[in-house]
Amino acid sequence: MTALLWAGALGTWLFVITFLIDGLTRPGYHPVRHPVSALALGPRGWIQTTNFVVCGLAVTVAAFPLAGALDSGILAVAVGVFGAALVASGVFPMDPMRGYPPGAPDGTPSETSRRHALHDYAGMVVFFGLPVAAVIAAIVVPETGWRWYSGVTAALLFAGFGAFGTAWENDSPRAGLIQRLVIGAGWLWLGLLFVHAAT
Questions:
Q1: How many CB atoms lie within 10 A of CB 22?
Q2: How far apart are CA 172 and CA 186, in angstroms?
Q3: What three-state secondary structure class fits 102?
Q4: Angle at which helices 144-169 and 175-198 cross, to 10°
């Protein structure tokens, strides 16, 4: 069971490392503007698709021993739902838009595909599920330091994902940067939570 928790930690951190490197080296992709999900498009899209699925599966599997390690089934369920939503985000990629892949319309299409709608639904679960898991951890994890860390992380995630949603709706040139900062904070917390549970 400890190995599964470590797999969850590594999955979260490799997710961030992968999209950062891929985004910086992808022709026509602008990390400051474009969301992480856009990396699942184009000739190298399989990298981010795989990244979503592998991270989601690692998190989902690690949620099972998390229940026993931290004595909280509800925390494990929240983390597991978050992981499953990550998998769905990879299975149902977003539509091309906002200039990526190169040649895509620079704005947002008036009509989007069913696949894109399913990606959006999965994204809502991801962006709401992780801060909810942090709130639960702030209540159930016995160590005071971890309660504070989880509570602060939850507040940052709720505010950060809200800021990203607004930036995305307004097609802000910094939407991608905002999303990356929030993902970095959230995935770091989750990885450390798995490590804490494993040790």
A1: 18
A2: 22
A3: coil
A4: 160
In the predicted structure, residue 62 carries a pLDDT above the cut 90: yes
Global pTM? 0.96
CB 61 within 8 A of CB 6: no
Q: Helix or strand or coil: residue 152?
A: helix
Strand, coil or helix: what is 93? coil
Q: Which domain holds residue 132?
A: 2-198
Q: How many domains does the chain have?
A: 1
Cα angle 140, 180, 104; round to 5 = 135
pLDDT of 1 over the 90 cut: no
Place of tokens 């979503």: 52
Taking alpha carbons only, the member of 86, 1, 91, 101 closest to residue 43 is 101
